[in-house]
Amino acid sequence: MSEVSFTRTYAEFGPKVRDFEKTPEIARLLTTVLCTYDYPVTALIGTEFAGIWLGEGDSDDKREEDLDLLFKLANEDFVEIILRDQWAKPIYGGYLVTGKSIKVTDEIVSGYRVILVTHDDHSTTRHSFVPGVGYQPEPTYGVTTLHTARRAAAWASS
Fold it and tell me: Model confidence over 44-87: pLDDT tens digits?
């Protein structure tokens, strides 16, 4: 199990943001996500992100360009995910509810690693990949109705 560290800011496009992380395809997809889910433009300013391998199998034989990207949007309750398909093309990969820590497990569901989010009250929300949808919280008591309703409302209005 590895903890995700959000140590880089995306919108700065500074030296810590590698070329493959700021391609026009990534920028377009991230803009689409922001618009689809009604994020304010300020959510991108200060967004921290991490590159990590979420797919099945060992990441040691993968190219850096194949890393999946997790975006912890500023002042928002969600982490948005951009995955890479088998041709390294960026695709929308779903979302996580935010929390105190995010850990990627070695457990595989539908070809992708399960992600655990631990919250301030020490509860944990498990996120798994659903084909055709992407990552989302598994339905449990720990997943708040507000998060689910907000995502559903934004999706329905798009």
Answer: 887 888 888 899 887 655 566 678 999 998 888 889 999 988 77
Alpha-carbon span 157 to 83, nearest angstrom: 24
Residues 148 and 133: their CA atoms lie apart, in Å, by 14
Rounded CA separation 82/94 (Å): 7
First to last CA, the chain: 36
In the chain, which ranges are E strands? 2-3, 8-9, 48-52, 68-72, 78-84, 90-97, 101-109, 112-118, 124-130, 134-137
Which pairing describes strands 78-84 and 112-118: parallel, antiparallel, or unpaired? Answer: unpaired
Angle 135-19-67 (CA atoms, 0-180°, nearest 5)? 30
DSSP 22-56: S-HHHHHHHHHHHHHTT--GGGTTT-EEEEE--BS
Q: Which two tokens stand for residue 68?
A: 């999946």
54, 68 in Cβ contact below 8 A? yes
Taking the C-alpha atoms of residue 90 and residue 73, their distance in angstroms, rounded to an integer, is 18
Q: How many CB atoms lie within 10 A of CB 25?
A: 14
Q: pTM, whole model, 2 decimals? A: 0.83
